[in-house]
Design goal:
With 118 residues, this protein is mostly helical. The mean pLDDT is 85. The chain has a single domain (5-117), classed as Butyryl-CoA Dehydrogenase, subunit A, domain 3 (Up-down Bundle). α3 runs antiparallel to α5. It has helices spanning 5-26, 35-61, 65-76, 78-88, 96-117. Helices cover 80% and strands 0% of the residues.
Length: 118
Amino acid sequence: MTWPAPLWKIVTDTIKKNAEVIKNLGDKYRGMPEGSMWDVCVMVHDIAAGQLEIDARPSFNRGDYAYASDVVSVVKGVGDACENAFKEVHRKSPLTDMDRQTTERCGVAIDLLITNSK
């Protein structure tokens, strides 16, 4: 069995799209105190996309659904990392809706992975 293309595409595209949007939004804050929190958000999304490609997908393709689910669970937390970066500088995150979308889509992927592992 291979990773279902629509599921894989939805989760990966969400992470990659969000990283690009965050980068573009954060560009206007370069050199300002807020700039570092935008950089953190881009970095965690880039790392998450890599984890999906390098760890989750191959694990799923070889039938290790439990490990793939664990990786997607970690990726699901990228929104929290972003939110925490804004909290550290006492700012309300403008990315809350985007973070919620990531959490929801990863949650669906995890549910499907767990269902397949039984």
